[in-house]
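A.,

Following up on our hallway conversation. Structure tokens first:
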């Protein structure tokens, strides 16, 4: 059943409603996926207030986590796989024990929907991005907010730590990507070449590049030292909702409202493969740690696992 998102205006930044109505509601689709560090499990939302953990080899749902009071929008495994972090429309983050499924901590402090959550590479802190226009940094052990960044002029849609732990990137509905120094939490770079909201950001494994996906239907690759846009990748016919680098950095996967997952050569920007099979918007993509699989989540209520080399759908998880 469709349900209007709580307290959300249906109007764009220009005061019009064009292009916004279909995406300011939730339908029970899968909008976030993440592999465990050992690749044995995939975590996803369920299009509700639940998280699900799936066994990669069998496609079986091995755990359902139920403590949020509204829709779950993001999940992320800790670097050692011990915990799963989640964020929700209920304005909170939760940290879950992977083994037991118990909620070990609830983090409160945002004043609006929390769209993004990521563990730092060393697992000591969490970053979250919210419709309250801020990024918050949290101490995992205490659950205390240690820093609030007045990040963007509009909603914060995506965040990601660099693998070397030195930087945090955020993408927002103000059409920008920002890069923050981890030690000072000062904004080091603002990249403003997208013509519409930035929906996804991801660092390359060597921390040299940031990939971003946008409502302007493009991916962009940014140099993390200079902030220059090195490449604009065109090929999707609708919004690009998700991006992820392969573990070796050679490829980028993207998910789009055109119902496809695309695989791109990171060096050339050429489309290597298009994966078709979802019947609705693709909102999430994630490479497995060994680079063999790509997980995708869609508003068609399914999670699919694709062979990265073949482009074939190896498994579809139902039950969302």
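Then the amino acids I'd put at each of the 320 positions:
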């Amino acid at each position: 059943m469709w349900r209007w998102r709580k307290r959300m205006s249906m109007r764009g930044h220009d005061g019009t409603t064009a292009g916004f109505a279909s995406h300011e509601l939730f339908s029970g689709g899968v909008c976030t996926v993440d592999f465990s560090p050992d690749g044995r499990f995939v975590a996803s939302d369920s299009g509700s207030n639940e998280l699900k953990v799936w066994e990669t080899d069998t496609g079986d749902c091995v755990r359902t986590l139920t403590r949020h009071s509204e829709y779950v929008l993001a999940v992320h495994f800790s670097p050692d796989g011990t915990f799963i972090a989640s964020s929700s429309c209920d304005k909170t983050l939760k940290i879950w024990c992977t083994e037991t499924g118990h909620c070990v901590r609830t983090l409160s402090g945002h004043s609006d929907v929390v769209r993004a959550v990521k563990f730092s590479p060393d697992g000591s802190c969490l970053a979250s991005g919210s419709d309250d226009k801020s990024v918050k940094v949290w101490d995992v052990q205490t659950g205390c907010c240690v820093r609030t960044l007045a990040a963007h002029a509009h909603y914060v849609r995506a965040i990601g730590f660099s693998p070397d732990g030195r930087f945090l990137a955020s993408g927002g509905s103000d059409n920008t990507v920002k890069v923050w120094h981890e030690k000072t939490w000062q904004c080091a770079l603002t990249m403003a070449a997208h013509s519409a909201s930035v929906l996804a950001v991801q660092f390359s494994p060597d921390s040299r590049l940031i990939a971003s996906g946008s409502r302007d239907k493009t991916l962009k690759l940014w140099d993390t030292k200079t902030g220059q846009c090195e490449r604009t990748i065109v090929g999707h016919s609708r919004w690009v909702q998700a991006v992820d680098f392969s573990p070796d950095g050679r490829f980028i996967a993207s998910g789009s409202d055109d119902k496809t997952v695309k695989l791109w050569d990171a060096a050339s920007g050429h489309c290597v493969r298009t994966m078709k099979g979802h019947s609705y918007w693709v909102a999430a993509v994630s490479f497995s740690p060994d680079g063999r699989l790509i997980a995708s989540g869609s508003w068609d209520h399914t999670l699919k696992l694709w062979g990265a080399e073949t482009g074939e759908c190896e498994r579809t998880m139902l039950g969302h």
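The two ends are 13 Å apart (CA to CA). Curious whether your intuition agrees with the design.

B.
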